[in-house]
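ok so i was messing around last nite and threw this chain in just to see what happens. nothing serious, just curious
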Amino acid sequence: MKINVPKEVQEIISVLQEHGHDAYAVGGCVRDSLLGRAPADWDITTSAKPMEVKHLFRRTVDTGIQHGTVTVMFGKEGFEVTTYRIDGEYEDGRHPKEVTFTGEVREDLRRRDFTINAMAYNDKEGLLDLFGGIDDLNKKVIRCVGNPEERFTEDALRIMRAVRFAGQLGFSIEEKTKQAASKLASNLEKISAERIETEIRKLLLSNHPELLRTAYELGITEVVLPEFDAIMQTEQNTPHHFTNVGEHTLKALELIPANKVLRYTMLLHDMGKPKMKTTDENGRDHFKGHGEESERIANEVLHRLKMDNDTIKKVTKLVKWHDVRTQPTPKAVRKAMNKLGEELYPLLLQVQYADTMAQSTYQREEKLERIHKVKVIYEQIIEEKQCFSIRNLAVNGKDLIAIGVTQGKQIGEILNILLEDVLEEPSHNTKEYLLELARNKIGQEA
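result:
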């Protein structure tokens, strides 16, 4: 079985072999190549010790030399070369206390997480598949190498990786692997927030974000995202919905483009519903104010996951606005664009479309018609370059100072007054009109 290995990787392997060492491309790059996917990176495993690797190549970086990893540089691109190793005892559920270098590739491969990630390849010997990786690729199965409880006890993050790989590859999780993941899910408490977020994000951005349901069923979200468990247990007795809040969320995730901001928005958009739920005398459920409560929870969750501030700002704003139905009039749309900003407003329309399509068919046509009309108006506003923010006004602070406006607070107040006027009537956005309006306001205040 032939794999198309990049020339740099082949050169590294050849150099190591020429000096009497074993060397293979290993792990995810082999898996992805066999699946016809472009590998994100290429890792190499070798019998050569780290100092031997450093001696053989002109430019190297000590990436993780204590664990046997040296990065060999070709131009600006680096390739990790790791010595065959046996991991010692895992003390923190994530990292081995010590590693022992070995000359046996089998020992190195048997410590890896899943069979599909435990294959190695070089052009000389072909594919090395000691644990049934090819068979599991063909069956589309995620299965641990050896005893799954041992693999998950060594590194609890592997529990989330099992679900994430299933989502990315469209695979199922083998039963014993699934049982071990459920049994040991509580060990995820030992894993850092940053690594948890990485796995959640990769699952959300996969072709199967709905496999978050599997994470719930295995008890994973109870540890890393308990807010999701709450929505999976919140029913919605309303004609607008036909599932509970969690199942609606999973459907909405499938319907939104695979963009980090959009997928996180859909994950979090209804998190406030459990707390805000009320039931009227007819048995119908209501969730008034859930947008603001969802915004609060989204902010809390994203900070807990150590998300970057830019993403937090965008997601929480979209979550807050997801259920605000702008009327399809130019004035209403301009005002909404002013509050959300030019970058976020088209994303809001995508959020509302996915949200609507994940609901019941009750009033669906009317809901979609409103979104469509708003989208047409939005596109017209952009095409005509209508003003909807202070920075688009035909005048600025310097212009106001020139006609006698006091520097400081008054400038901002006057600019906001001018913007309100222009949001009502975009043709008013001329320097002459706005300066005259500003003079009148100054005169009134005097």
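not much to say yet. The mean pLDDT is 94.
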